[in-house]
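Protein folds are increasingly written down as discrete tokens. With that in mind, we are printing a sequence and the tokens encoding its fold.
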Amino acid sequence: MRSTAGTHPAPGRLGVVVTARDEAAGITATLVALRAQTDRDFDLVVVDNGSSDGTGDVVREYAAWHGLPRWRVVTEEQKGTGAAADTGMREAAAAGAVLLARTDADCLPDPGWTAAVRRALALSELVAGRLVPRTDDLPVSRPRTAVLNGAVALAGAFGRVRPGNQDDDFLGPYMMSAGCNMAVTADLYLRAGGFPRTAIEDVHEDRALVNAVRRLTTRYATYDDVLVRGSTRRVAAWGLVRTLGW
């Protein structure tokens, strides 16, 4: 992993995209984390992916209460994280963002996340951040935290040898980039074709985007100070073995 220490931030408008489906009960924590960013010069696009619990209203009320006119909600009825994320990224770019970052509605970006994203995008056109487990939503023991961190490393190592990630047309090695903590220039996102508009059960849109980018440039890297804390709800519901298979 690289660090952005000492790097000047990339210039231009930053758009942050959050995908959400039925997250009314928990999305406020993500909004609080975004409002607490040290660099608050960004647009926020929350994509309500067909929620039935008023997720969009929670976001609108939060933005109105705190006077955040650059925060808005768009709706995508086509179910799937790929479709929702693609809608959000294209909406942000159409509104003038030249830098794009994505996280999810059950994640907590570190207070320095947007600042680190800007610095990383001065060095790379596609940025993968570091993902660590949240400890505030579900109790996670130290041993389980170590196992989860090891599982992420294992998944990245498997991705580098996975047959589907091998092709003579690729310009550089595979890089795992979790959709809940990644950033890309708007220009590269559009040239690569964006996230496939699919459900994650069919296609992992983050892996598809990375492989599309690998056909265009070698300017991509992982940065340890682009930090997001992700929910462990999936592990709690599925168990570690099934989550690793996913």
